[in-house]
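Need tokens for this chain, all 401 residues.
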Amino acid sequence: MRYLWLLLFISAVGLIHPQQKGFFSTKGKEILDPQGKPVLLKGIALGNWLVPEGYMFKFEKVSSPRLIYDLFDILLGEREAEKFWNKFRTDYITHEDIKFLKKCGFNSIRIPFNYRLFVTDDEKQELTGPGYALLDSAVKWCREEYLPVVLDMHCAPGGQTGDNIDDSYGYPFLFESEENINLTIKIWTKLADTYKNDPIVIGYDLLNEPIAHYFDKDKLNPLLEPFFKRLTAAIRTVDKNHIIFIAGAQWNSNFSVFGKPFDDNLVYTFHKYWTPATKDVVQDYIDFGEKYQVPIWMGESGENTNEWITEFRTMLEKENIGWCFWPYKKLNSERGITSIVPPKDYDLITTFANKFDVSYGYIRDNKPDQAKIKTILAQYLENIKLKNCFINSDYLKALGL
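Here are the structure tokens for all 401 residues:
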């Protein structure tokens, strides 16, 4: 009787969910939920929260996180900019956002993150930083709302893509640096150790869009699967429970670099943007899944018309392919779930950013009035809160929600 009351108490305070009996896993071509039943993932990515992107701010040249941080240091000064980003990360994604997404009908979310939030920026490279607490908060909210989550390293040490999206210096240095590889392994191993017993975590999306097509594919592509094998082996020393998501080369588009699956709990993930919304564009992935009897997952797509979203999403579901569209929240756009209203005079910020050059003369002559900058960005921070955003209901309808 005492044990029964303990279980009732634990359930009441939200420590366990009545649906949770195990972990997400794979069986053949299916992803299974914690009860062992096939599930078609229908998710949205929380882009821009832990990986700011220039286009989300309407910036054209200032594109990667580090360039955006530099711009805000110029606009506000380092200390005030630090306060801005602390407030931004606190209010951009909150418990209310997770509740809203659950209410919309999503059964999963994907959280992109930058490795820089999880390690100190010095020679010691200690595994501390604001990212751990931010992820913990989001996972806690997901647990309370029962909205399963995929963790996604969008920016890896050295850069895995070689473009603005990985916050790199224009080349995928990750694969040619033992130091970067080791740091990536250390961060992922710590995260896996943290969430190893948490059934609300679906799994780990190890790298986002590795090896852009601009670079020597003959040289770099053969390095990708060995890297994934090494990283997976390290994660499995602390976590044998969770799914590991393996991304194709060339923006998650090329599965030809992979052989037979090397772990019994893998999902292979592809991304597709700006293609016809027809089966032939995903046939190679379907064939891969059929050949190796392994699940495939459309981990990112979007930034298109509602008509295209409807057609592509419908085709994926017909082929039993789970999906995660992009993004949840962005500035003044119908191509996302929620739209942030631009503050008054925000064009002063975008004009300065879009004509930006690195000379101090440009900064002195063109930077908006300091008081005006603070007013604009203070209003921006207010507008990012869900209660002040515009809900794109037609986008939700395009997702069948």
